[in-house]
Structures are given as C-alpha cells and as structure tokens.
Specification:
about 300 residues; alpha/beta; Rossmann fold; Alpha-Beta Plaits; 6-stranded mixed sheet; 4-stranded antiparallel sheet; binds adenosine-5'-triphosphate; ATP-binding cassette domain-containing protein; ATP binding; AAA+_ATPase; transport
Length: about 300
Amino acid sequence: MIEANALTKRYGATTAVNELTFTARSGRVTGFLGPNGAGKSTTMRLILGLDTPDAGRVLIDGVPYRQLKDPLRTVGAMLDATWRHPGRNGRDHLRWLAATNGLPEKRVEELLELVGLTSVAERRAGQYSLGMLQRLGIAATLLGDPRVLLFDEPVNGLDPEGMAWIRQLLHTLAADGRTVFVSSHLLPEMAQTAQDLVVIGRGRLIYQGTMDDFVARTSAHGVRVRTPHADELRAALTGQAEFTEADGAFVVSGLDSDRIGQLAFDAGATLHELSPITGSLEQAYLDLTREAVEFPAAVSPEAAR
Ligand SMILES: Nc1ncnc2c1ncn2[C@@H]1O[C@H](COP(=O)(O)OP(=O)(O)OP(=O)(O)O)[C@@H](O)[C@H]1O
C-alpha cells in the first residue's frame, strides 16, 4: 500500500505537489492521472525517496522509502524505461542489476522469459527497440519480487500488442496482492487497466476512488434514439423528458431506455436505435480537469508566456 498524507513539494515559487493525500491499495491497479505539469513525476520521486517533501509524508507499507530495510525487495519502479547500458546485452544488464543490488541472479532467466526477451537476451540493449526496453525495464523492476510497483508511462511508444501485454501483466501483479501504481497519458488504455484512480491537477488531489465511480460522474448521460418518425417521438417526449436533437438523432435525459421504448411504441414511432450513452474515462477526465489544466487550450501560447 502507498499512503501519501498532506504531501507538499516546492521548487522555488512553484508548488509542484500541494498537500496531496491519497492511498493506493494492495491488490489493485491504481491509475495516476493529471494534465502535464500536474506533479505526477514529482509525486513518484517523493514516493521513492528521490526527493524530500517540504511537508507531509508518504509511506510504503507503513514505512517511508528511505527507512525501508530492503527497498528493492519492497518497491520496484520504472520511471524512465529508456535508460540502459548501451554496450551490455539484456541478460547481462539484469545480471548486473541483480549483482549490484544484492538481488537473486537466478530470477534473471525467469524474468527474461516472463517479459518475452529470452530470444534477444544476447543482443546489446543499445540496439533494443523502445518496446524491448520497456520490457527490460519491467523485468528490472521485478528482480526483487517487490510487493509495491510504480510505473511512469509504461506503455509509451508501445504497439497494441505490447500495450495488451503490459495491461495483462499489471492485472496479474495486482491479482497477486501487489500494489500497482501507474501513470499514463493514454486514457482509453488506462480505462482498461486501472481499477482505482488518483487524479491530480496543479499538485492537488482532484479525485480518488474507483474507476467505475469516476466514469459514472461524467456529464455524458442519456439515451440516444433514432427514428424515421421524428414528429411522433418529439410529441411523445415533450413534457416527459429533456431532449436535444442533432444529426437525425435525439439524445434524451431523465428517462431510461425501457421507458423511452414504451413511449415511442405507444406513439407509433419505429425505433432504429435506442442506446444508453455510457460515460468514458476520457469524458469524465476532461470534465474534471478542465479547470486544472496548467495552460488551457483557450489560452494562446503567447498569452501563457
Ligand atoms: N526539479 C525541478 N525544478 C523546478 N521545477 C520543477 C522540478 N521538477 C518539477 N518541477 C515543476 O513542478 C511542476 C510539476 O512537474 P512534474 O514533472 O511533477 O509534473 P508531471 O505531472 O509529471 O508532468 P508531465 O505529465 O508533463 O510529465 C511543473 O510546474 C514543473 O515545471
């Protein structure tokens, strides 16, 4: 479990993380979202003791990172997958990491297999593609068999197959009872990966809870209805529900699809479509973060300078 409590970090006049409180639970994949500059990387560095908070604290399984007895056996983190020793091959890279960190070397072969790099393990990491480097980075985080895992943008630059593989892996790690804390800019991917969410804007918490609750908050609710008998349907809905019409379809709010179907039937309107509009993570995220974006799209780059 990761517990941040009133965590604050300033860089000069910038408050990168501002009294941030959240929990990432074990056995869950927690997505960490926020607009550019919101403070995600700073928070990750604070969790890992790479930076010192100005106020507040963050605990990993009840202990600050710097006081962990065996940090690499407790926490695995991939903050930048592109780092590697260019001259070393994948296998030697992992062996070197294991040896220099007092971790069991016998896990290296097992992890190469797990991340699908066994066949290229002899190839120099300098020649690895981004996808292969991500896999190598993930193998490195798992060397110490840690209970808590942090990944910053793990699917960046990956093809759909690579993304699906990471998604599956993160689910497996969480199902094992581990804490998996992951940031990503790719919302559709996050929607399929995370069960819980922590959303921040300008260093502050703006949402903490389950993915399902978050998506349910979206403003995009209603039922989309198409009919060749628009006049009949309009008459049936008037006074019964709020609705808008655009592109040959009605969007009805305040009535469920069963009721709308019945009203249409009673009015003699044939339905060609009757589909509830379910919220998306993207919509809910945009609704929530609109206020918190550091440089809103409405502000021109000149004005923001
Ligand atoms: N070492 C530093 N020195 C000065 N300012 C910093 C430093 N690190 C981060 N900041 C500032 O703190 C704020 C938060 O930055 P951070 O990198 O944590 O955001 P982020 O959410 O990870 O952004 P992105 O999604 O763009 O990576 C930004 O305004 C950034 O400019």
